[in-house]
Each structure stands twice: as structure tokens, then as C-alpha cells.
Amino acid sequence: MAGRKWTKDELVLALNLYLKLPFGKMDQRTPEVIRLATLLGRTPGAIAMRLGNFANVDPYHQERGVHGLSGGRKQVEPIWEEFAKDRDTFLFESEKLLAEKDHKSIEDRFPSLRYETEGLVGATKEKLVKTRVNQYVFRDIVMANYSGKCAISGIDVAELLVASHILPWSKSEAERLNPENGICLSALYDRAFDRGLIGLKTDYSVIVSDALRQRASKPYYQQYFSHLENKTIELPTKYRSKKEFLEFHLKEVFLG
User: Fold this and answer.
1) CA 55, CA 243: separation in Å to the nearest integer?
2) In terms of C-beta distances under 8 Å and separation of at least 24 residues, what long-range contacts does 25-31 make, across chains too?
3) In 10, 22, 142, 234, which residue has its Cα 20 to 30 A from 240's Cα atom?
């Protein structure tokens, strides 16, 4: 089993998992690593090694001087390039493949799809399914990137967290699924960020809008917003928000 050649499908699923795990939780004892190993008939150590290979080709880690494991670079690099070229297609197809390996349908993996697409057929249904699946996966990636915590408040209750886009969903189709375009925020701060009531400067500190500061006398402002000005957010384990995206948000969305 140790000498069995890795297939493209297996490498695709390894990258799918790599994107969903915090950087410090990719070893062979991680439950998600063990689960994928079981699905693929491989050892957890083999899966962990492939995750290290993907860390080696990940541009973010290259910029940080973190090298990962270089031994399998030639095998994993084309898979990474496929993801970088078309995240939309790659993530959706990798989720379909993961469902198949687990002998499930895509609806079994994401049960809410059944009622979200009820009554739809053909291309209309297919498009919505793809959009929703990728939104769910993007949330998983962003949540993992911020260790399951709101970057501002530290809240770690998954049901209260949102994968907030910096470049709005409607503004840039190409960057919708870019991990560098996501921040994990609680529902309150996600809404405030989305509406331009708060923003992030390029040093990753919070700025509060004049529109919100006008409510400084309100008890809710004192409780939830008064301490935010110049507060540095908790930085992610892998992908920091692109400064160009933050600048766009400050210029085009933030109310000033």
C-alpha cells in the first residue's frame, strides 16, 4: 500500500482538506486527516505528508519562508495551479468527488440543498447547487483560517459566525472564493462590515465610521463598538486579507 501511486482524484481531495484545516492541525492525529485516510485507503501519515507538500507550493507560505515538505512538489503543484486558476470549478468538483468517495450524494453532504433547490430543474438547479456548495466550502475555509473564531470578538460559536467577504460577492466573481477575501466575523460585526459601518485598515486594525460614532451615547455602542477603534484583529493561521481588498472596502464600502 505504501508504494501505491497517488491518483489525481486523491491529490484533489488532499488539497480540499488542506484548504479546510488550520495550519497547525495537519498532522496524522487530526480527525479529519484520519477520516480522509480511511476513505482513500491510505495511512494518516501519508495524508499528512501530502498536506505538507501543498504547504510547500502554497504562495502564502512561500512568502513567509515556510517551506513545508518539498518531496512531492512535482505531483501537487499542478493540482494547486488548477485550484488557483479556477477556484469555482475546483472546489465544487472536489466536493462532488468527496461525496462519491463517501458513497453519498452532494445533497447528503449538504442537506439544506434539498429545500433550497426544491422545484428547480436543469441548468437553473445546477447553477444554484454549485453556488451554494461553494459558499459552504468557502465558509469552512475561512473558519479554519481563523481557527473557528470571530477575528474581532473571539466568539467561537460556529452558529454565530459568518465568512465575511471583503470584496463584496457582487463586485468580483473572480475573488469570491479566494481565502484572502474572507474574514471570520460574528453576525453583528459581519453586518457592520458589510454595510460599511466598520472597516479594516491595511495594518489589520479596525476603524469605526462617523455614522456609527454618532451613536456613541447609546448603550449598545458602548458595549459593542466603543473599544473597536484601532483594535487589531486576530490574524489568521494561513491567509491574511489582501491589502488591496481592504483598500477597496475602505474606498467603496466604508462610510467614512
Assistant:
1) 22
2) 26/51, 26/52, 26/55
3) 10
pLDDT in tens, 213-231: 999 999 999 999 999 999 9
Contact of 165 with 5, CB cutoff 8 Å: no
Output the pTM of the full model.
0.89
Residue 158 neighbours by CB under 8 Å, 6+ apart: 143, 148
Rounded CA separation 120/126 (Å): 9
> Which secondary structure element, helix H or strand E, spans residue 206, and what is its range?
strand 206-208
Element containing residue 208 per DSSP (H, E): strand 206-208
One-character DSSP codes across 125-184: HHHHHHHHHHHHHHHHHHHHHTTTS-TTT----GGGEEEEESS-TTT-GGGTT-GGGEEE
Closest CA to 190 of 217, 219, 224: 224
Using one digit for the tens of pLDDT, what is the confidence trace for 164-201?
A: 999 988 888 889 999 999 999 999 999 999 999 999 99
| CB contact at 8 A, 175 and 245 | yes
Contact at 8 Å (CB) between 42 and 69? no
Domain boundaries of the chain, sorted by first residue: 8-139, 147-252
Distance, in Å, from the CA atom of 28 to the CA atom of 50, rounded to the nearest integer, reads 11
Half-sphere exposure of 107 (CA within 13 A, CB side): 9
